[in-house]
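thread: overnight batch results

M.L. [08:02]
morning all. the overnight job finished for the chain we discussed friday. pasting input first so we're all looking at the same thing
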Amino acid sequence: MNDAPTATPPSRLARLLYGGILAYMAVDGFLNNDKRVEIAREKGVPAPEVLVPLATAKLLVANLGIVLWKYPRASAVALIVFFLGTTPTIHDFWTMEGQERQANKINFCKNVALLGGALLLFEAASKRSE
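M.L. [08:03]
and the structure it wrote out:
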């Protein structure tokens, strides 16, 4: 992937707003690592004590790449992979009932929207300025 600064970045404000949410998610992930590892273990994720912090670190690093517009295509792809992997695995609301179902449905939808944003960022990073 050629991530030379020939692509015109989306507005700084848009990247900061999107990045702010991702930064919050990453920091919250690190602060609540034990809880997230246990959730991943319950969902059948292999080696969750390793994969959960690695996924959280990927989220944080990819976020920085988007905010700073450094290696934006690689950063967007990392976010896309993160959301495609975690969203249906962790927020499988269709297997739940009651409040747990509602909370996970909201988080599933939020992640799908963030996935859409990552796809738009990938597209923007892939365009060449003329």
